[in-house]
Specification:
40% of the residues lie in helices and 20% in strands. It is of the alpha/beta class and 292 residues long. It folds into 2 domains: 145 residues, 3-Layer(aba) Sandwich (Rossmann fold), CATH 3.40.50; 132 residues, Rossmann fold.
Length: 292
Amino acid sequence: MNASLDSEEILVGYDGSTDASVALDWALDEAGRSGRPVRLAYVFEWLTVAGWIGPGVAPGVWPDETARRQVEDLVRKAAADAAAERPGLTVRGEVFDGPPALVLQERSAEAQMLVLGSRGHGGFAGLLAGSTAVSVAAHARCPVIVVRDGQAATSGPVVVGVDGSPSSVQALGFAFERAAQRDVPLRALRVWEPPGERWVPPGFDPEEASATERAAAEADLASWRKSFPDVPVEVVANPGNPAALLVEESRGAQLVVVGSRGRGGLRGMLLGSVSQQLIHHSQCPVAVVRER
């Protein structure tokens, strides 16, 4: 890892919500393994359609400096508490002004990774992943990890979706590094689409198809295996729906890693259907990796 990457921070979108606190805990665990500094970023948006969503009382007059000071105190205390609980880690907080998704996207250019709760104070009941998390995952300049309350498993493998796309190759590197840091196996899943029920090509052999797809996955993994020789790897090639199978894999994993768009992505669609489905339905934290 080069010196410039060593200086990059783990950025945490923080707003005092339960999910943001869970995201912060995940980021602190990651920092404990990597030694990277952690920065809490609270994005202060003066005007919102639904009214005030920050801490304390609603602003009386816009702009309200009292409300901003409350936010600054919240972030300062959260950073101080985190640093006290994790001696040896560098933790700081900062308040930014502007639309949350846009500001976090801009700050992500200087981060090693960005960690978000699935919903903040602006989430609606029943909405599993907030608009900020989905938007940032689509546009961020670094890997985005989305964590939901109750998801922070510390056992099980790291699971990565493999399909040969450029973002999938980037996701493999991220997944191998996380598995090595955690000293856990990596489970690589390649999903292929079976023939339709109405017509099966003459001579089609599902076992042969799986073997072909497995060989393609092994080719994608070859260089990463050399870089991380101590990481046990299991390669699985199954027919079916990629999102559904990865969600199922997430039940026994501590992290699922996917590229932002796979081979099926439409030109101009920044976040593919598989990564969106995982953000909404995964049973463990999800890392979405884009090409940098």
